[in-house]
Amino acid sequence: MTAGSAAAPVVEVADVTLRFKGVTAINGVSFTVGEHELFAIIGPNGAGKTSIFNVLSGVYRPQEGSVRFLGEPVLGRRPHTIAARGMARTFQNIELFENLTVIDNLMLGRAHAVRYGMFAAAGWLGPARRSELADRAAVEDIVDFLELAQYRGFPVGLLPYGVQKRVELGRALAMEPKLLLLDEPVAGMNLEETEDMARFILDIRDELEIPMIMVEHDMGLVMDLADRVLVVDFGVPITTGTPVEVQRNPDVVKAYLGEDHATGGRRSKAPSAAGTAAAGEHP
Amino acid sequence: MTATEPRRAEAATGSTPGTGPTARSGGRRPRGRPAMYTTYAQDMALLNTRGKKVGLGALLVLAVLLPFVLQDDLLRLLATGCVLSIGAIGLNLVTGYAGQVSLGHAFFLGVGAYTASVVAGDPEDEEVWGLGITFLPVWLLAAGVVAAVLGLVVAPLASRLRGLYLAIVTLGLVFIGEHVFREWDSLTGGVGVGRQAAEPVLFGMDLSRRSESFSGDQQMYWLMLAMLLLFALVGRNIARSAMGRSFAAVRDRDIAAEITGVDVRRVKRRAFVVSSFYAGCAGALWYSILGFIDPSSFGLLLSVQFIAMVLIGGVATISGSIMGAFFIALLPRLTRELPAYLPFLSSSATDTPNVFQFETLLYGLLIVLFLIFEPRGLYGVWIRVRNYWKAWPFSY
């Protein structure tokens, strides 16, 4: 696996600190993600992983630090403008438009591509019709890619959980992203669904060549897929490195399993134990 | 549909599939598969099944022919139903599709009614303003645009407030509107006086007056039916376009919508503008049927009636809005018949219990019953009936 940080980075996060009144959710986090890179962020519950995502996509505004996306600062921009620049995201707890069909959910991912106005829409005039048909064709490619064909016309609220996760990934892909943020893509999935999702993630990296940042508690998945891993604990970055480096870091083991285990003789086994412990919290 | 049904000539000429996803609707279907879509355009068409085409066609023919069968007073009621449908579609766009609860619909109806009557009003009149342009498209558009501009002014409230808070603020709008309408004599004529509504003049002919071959009510009914068709079509187009999808996205998950690239503030603004435009037009048309505007008629009860139309008809459906509006429009007529069957109800307003009290009670009762037993409204009932017959003779 190659770390793509040598090329121009897609995202540069520098010394970001986010406070909610007295609570410091993120404390001096820095990292960069390069092209074609699958970057993972791990850490115990409440470590600030999702907060980092919320800073990146513009939902939270940190008090300190800077975030550059494709070379331009994004802090202070509204979420939809950041999305339009090519940052797509999935959510830990599925955030789909549950009354809409799979197709309509994916079509909404193409909000950035809509150029026609109110009047064209009202009359279903040429620009609106052409734009809708082009978007539909683009969306159908994603339906094929994620094997969603059989669910197309269903309201997503009626679909099984694993499929909803896939639809959410599809909505993010429909945005034609330059960076994809995956917030716990396999949380709550069984082995089979997890393997499917892992396959899709690898396909996205290798076929679509979209860089990704993934937050995940399933250590097996993270260690297998990620190029580099950032470990955070209580908002503080502990280490960044390849999966193997991270697994050997005593501070990481301490964050997951506490002081005794880190200083005890189980150092080499601890990362996999950490994986099962963390995964166990999310049945 | 089965293969034994007579095939359309174009389907029989060859088995070439559609000419790609950008082909217009009406692409050829494979031999013997009349219900198969071969282009996205066919799938996305408004009437994308033969059942819908035939059903709507039959309904329209029936609707156009009704004036030859029905009495004038019933036609007047149906014309009102058409106009209320336009208003209900407007409310459904902002409340049903975009999820922004608005109790201020009556205000926008009032704005539309008065704008139209000012534009069409007699300039010689010394009591109230008038510009003297009685041509229907002009005053109708003016009514819609003025209401839409006021909707644009109100919309920023919706980007700060949501749910019940927004409902309360829009409720305030109704009271402000009522006060202004009562006090602004040069606009409304004042309480107890009122003013003439806009006259529906089209190509030099006042449609509300009797012509050589048709009565005024017949002409008004046809006019309102055509208006309803136009507004319903535009409503459907908005609902199926990116605009309608973004409305629903803001309703279901506003934060996710924003992160998906939807400008939530702009969507809410558009929802209010479109809805107010519809309300303005509906108000103008409605009072052109009634002929006279009383400044105290744009109160909370009117807003509640429109909420009832949306809830009873079906939230976030255009056809549901129409069903709900006709239901509410025809309801008084039905309750007037009740004393014959329920002896304890009086048809005189001075006795209690009387039918008028019963009618007011019924709005509330129906809202509650529909919310509990049929949340998808009359549209949901229709879907259930349709699915039963689709699956017939199987019950699963």
Question: What's the helix and strand layout?
Answer:
The complex is a heterodimer of chains A (283) and B (396).
Chain A: E1 11-20, E2 23-33, E3 38-42, H1 49-56, E4 64-69, E5 72-73, H2 79-84, E6 87-89, H3 102-108, H4 118-123, H5 126-145, H6 161-174, E7 179-183, H7 191-208, E8 212-215, H8 219-225, E9 228-233, E10 236-241, H9 243-248, H10 250-257, H11 259-263, H12 270-280
Parallel strand pairs in A: 3-8, 3-9, 6-7, 7-8
Antiparallel strand pairs in A: 1-2, 1-4, 4-5, 9-10
Chain B: H1 9-12, H2 40-44, H3 50-65, H4 72-97, H5 105-120, H6 136-160, H7 163-183, H8 185-188, E1 195-196, E2 201-202, E3 205-206, H9 216-240, H10 242-252, H11 254-259, H12 264-290, E4 292-293, H13 300-313, H14 318-336, H15 355-373, H16 377-391
Antiparallel strand pairs in B: 1-4, 2-3
What does this structure look like?
The complex is a heterodimer of chains A (283) and B (396). In chain A, strands 6-7-8-3-9-10 form a 6-stranded mixed β-sheet, with helices on both faces. In chain A, helix 3 runs parallel beside helix 6 (161-174) and helix 10 packs parallel to helix 12. By secondary structure, chain A is an alpha/beta fold. Chain A has 12 helices and 10 strands. The two termini of chain A are 30 Å apart. Chain A has 2 domains: 4-86 and 177-280, Rossmann fold (3-Layer(aba) Sandwich); 97-174, no CATH class. Chain B is an all-alpha fold. Chain B has one domain (70-391): ABC transporter involved in vitamin B12 uptake, BtuC (Orthogonal Bundle). Helices cover 64% and strands 2% of the residues of chain B. Chain B has helices spanning 9-12, 40-44, 50-65, 72-97, 105-120, 136-160, 163-183, 185-188, 216-240, 242-252, 254-259, 264-290, 300-313, 318-336, 355-373, 377-391, and strands at 195-196, 201-202, 205-206, 292-293. In chain B, the strands form 2 sheets. A two-stranded antiparallel sheet of chain B has the order 1-4. In chain B, helix 6 (136-160) runs antiparallel to helix 12 and helix 13 (300-313) packs across helix 14. Chain B is globular, with a radius of gyration of 23 Å. Chain A: Pfam families: ABC_tran, BCA_ABC_TP_C. Chain A: This is ABC transporter ATP-binding protein. Chain A: Residues 259-283 are annotated as: Disordered. Chain A: One of its GO terms (cellular component) is plasma membrane. Chain A: Residues 11-259 form the ABC transporter domain.
